Amino acid sequence: MFERFTKDARAVVKGAFALAEGEGVRTVGAEHLLLALLDREGSRASFALAALGLAERREAVRGALRETRRRAGLTRAEADALAGLGIDVAEVVARVEEVHGVGAMSEDVGDLKDLTGRGGRRAGRRPVFGREAKGVLERSLRVALGRRERHIGDEHLLLALTGAPGVVGEVLADHGVTFEGVSRVCPPVHPARSAGS
């Protein structure tokens, strides 16, 4: 599938891996793809994000993603469902962090300790795509095919993220970035012209 990616889409994937490695996590998540998209300039997705007003709210998006990571990646709907069962997610997070430190419920935290108890990645272990990130990549192919485009650009990754179930889709929607909005500001490219992107 990666042979169908444009240079911009490949740069997003590489950026997502770099972000995951920098955090010391073992899986590249959908949030890493979104953050890598936010770091891009001069691409179709960066144009769409700027047109939708998200480019100047990067830090707000980063903050929203950090908050959801603190609560173990639960969406508001999931937290509300647990509240319906009498489980206060904020209270659970507070108690866990009181004992184990801030961010203790974040994904991969337990995998970061080496034998000395310090955080960090074991030599030779690179992050791999997590389930959500794989789903985004697969959806980006379906989006490109649905738009009758031959190559997968970073705009297809953004479109796939807007429809992603879970935190990333929720954060994008909260900031006014929807599939329809991205489609409007980033219409399909004629298939013959998309090859050099």
TrEMBL record:
Organism of this sequence: Streptomyces bangladeshensis
Cytoplasm listed as a keyword: no
Keywords: Hydrolase, Protease, Repeat
Gene3D superfamilies: Clp, N-terminal domain
Biological processes, Gene Ontology terms: proteolysis
Chain ranges of the Clp R domain: 2-192
GO molecular function, one term: peptidase activity
Name under which the protein is recorded: Clp protease N-terminal domain-containing protein
InterPro entries: Clp_N_dom_sf, Clp_R_N
Keyword Hydrolase: yes
Residue ranges crossing the lipid bilayer per the database entry: none
